[in-house]
Structure formats: C-alpha cells, structure tokens
Amino acid sequence: MWLGVAVALCMATGLISHFIQHPQPWFWWPTRPVWLYRFTQGLHVISGIAAIPLLVVKLWSVWPKLFARPVIGGVTRQLERLSILVLVGSMIFQLSTGLLNIAQWYVFGFFFPPAHYAMAWVAVGAIIVHVGVKLPVIRRALGEPVDSADVTGGGVVGPSRRNVLVGAAAATAVATIATAGQTVPWLKRVSVLAPRSGDGPQGLPVNRTALAAGVVRSARSPEYRLTVVGPSGSRSFTLAELQAMPQSTHELPIACVEGWSASAQWTGIVLADLISAVGGSPESDVRMISLEPPGPYSRTTLPARHARDSATLIALRLNGGELDLDHGYPCRLIAPTRPGVLQTKWLTRIEVVGA
C-alpha cells in the first residue's frame, strides 16, 4: 500500500515536471509561490527514493511464488506472470535509472527524459492491471491482523508481518533522510548520501559548467552583446549597459530536475522591462537563446505569465557578487517556479514571440 502511495506521488509530480518542460495548451503552471517547483520536484525525487526499499521488500515477499507449482500452469497463469514481469521490469527500470539520473551517472546509452516518461506509463498501466486482477487478494490481506503469519505444519515460516513492516519502514526512513537534504535544508547535515550538497561557486551547485557548454571564450569576449528582439525592433546591450540599467533583487530558489534545490539572492534587470523596451506585450511568450551551441536546452521558451512576473530577472549578480561564469555570466534567466534546466544561462538573445 505504501509502495503504491510512493509511486502515485512520484508519477503525479513527475508529470508536473514533464508538462512544465513540454507544455500543452491545457496545462497551467503558476508563478507563485516561488518555491512551488522546488517542492513538487523535491517530492518527486524523495518519493522515488523512498519507493526503492519498499520495492525491494515487496519483491522479497513475493520471491517464493516464482517457484510455486505448477511451474507452467494454464494460459491464465502465464498471462498473469507476464503482466507481473512487465510490472517488475518497468518499476526496476524507473527507479534505477531515476537514481542514476539524480547522481548524473549516465551509464545507459539513451536520452533519459523521454525514456523515463514513456516507461512511467508502462509502469502505471501494469500497476492498474495488476491491482485489478489482485483486488480480492488485496482486500483480504488488508483485513488481516498485522501480526498474522503464514503457518505450515504448525510452525511459523519467516518473519512476522509486523517485523517486515517495521523493517520496511525503517529502511525507507533511512533512505529518505540520507538523501532528502538536497531539497530540505534542515536535513542537509544528516543527508550523507545526497548527490548535491549545496557547495559550489557562490554557494550554489553547478550541473553544467561553462567549459562543458563550450562558452568560456564567447561569454568573456569584449564583443559580447545581449540582443532583445520585439515587435518594435531589436536592441543590443553591452554588459556595462545592462549593469547601468535599474536593478532588482529577489530571493529565489534554483531547483533542478535531479531534485536538488537551493535559495539564493539574485540581482538583475526585470525581464518585463526589457520586453517593454522592444514593444513586447505582457501576453507574449519569450524565447531565450544561450551562447551554448544548439542542444536540448540552449533554447527555451518562457510562458507569458512568467515573462511578465516582476520576480523574473535577467540576472547579473548572485548572492552579492558578479555572476560566476559557471552560473551563467555575463547574464542568465532566473524565474520563479521553473526547473533549473530551463533557467537559461549565458544568454545572448531574447525574442518576444506569440501575442
């Protein structure tokens, strides 16, 4: 039952992240509270990690049934075993690749996001079929006393249900506490297995460095310009001109899809002011283009509700200092309730699109 809760939370929050990154016309995501994506994505990773020991205990509990007689049985038995194979395989795939992803250890030879998304639906379908088939057994088992145990030949076989449940709860608690500190600040000191500690330039972790992105020379070039394009034309700004414009400061979290998040003080130009300078409408989406060579996240589109929000900045400073090169120098996007992967770094061009 608790495995089902963990998987349901993981699926729901995962869909939120997917649709933020791949928005559909019907999908709506607010800009307030500013920590909302930090919460949902943190819950996604925490529930996914919590599901791992629960799945291990579940597999341990059903392991003897793999050797039940008859080995082959009829067509119905084989179809049931096939459905269980799909369920187990998809769950192991989801949790193992998800764990590798938050550790940024890409030993698999495929692009993680689409594979993870597709297999999530396979897992959900398999769960629905399995629960539907096993519903009478589930109802009967949930009605039994927790202390009941299987008895064969007058002796108790294996640990009691209570011991199994207590052990599963303890393992889940340890796994959660040991990793949740990358999202929950007050657990940071005890989360010894958290992939991201919060250490890094200016107090924030870095997923992709300027060197890895291939922008070191272009970001530091004296010829650097930020070009803003809108209905009334385009304007190009040097870094000095951007620094001379009115600045605004906001406390905003940076929240990564891998689950880590951290709050920081960002200072820069309100994006809506730049959009207005080129005749852009508050109802317009905005395309962000990075100095980084073309790739999955070198170009992102910011929805209008985020683009016009007063807390959305083209950041020039971080925690009181000039933006570090690995954090997006000379300027980057920082907007509330957005995944870190969409907070475009090393900005070179902003285009007003849509209405």
From TrEMBL:
What sections of the protein cross the membrane? 43-63, 84-108, 114-133
What InterPro entries does the database record attribute to this sequence?
Mopterin_OxRdtase_euk (IPR008335), OxRdtase_Mopterin-bd_dom (IPR000572), OxRdtase_Mopterin-bd_sf (IPR036374), TAT_signal_bac_arc (IPR019546)
Keyword annotations for this protein?
Answer: Membrane, Transmembrane, Transmembrane helix
Q: Where is each Oxidoreductase molybdopterin-binding domain found? A: 219-353
At the top level of its lineage, which domain of life is listed?
Bacteria
Q: Tell me the SUPFAM superfamilies matching this sequence.
A: Oxidoreductase molybdopterin-binding domain
* Protein name per UniProt: Molybdopterin-dependent oxidoreductase
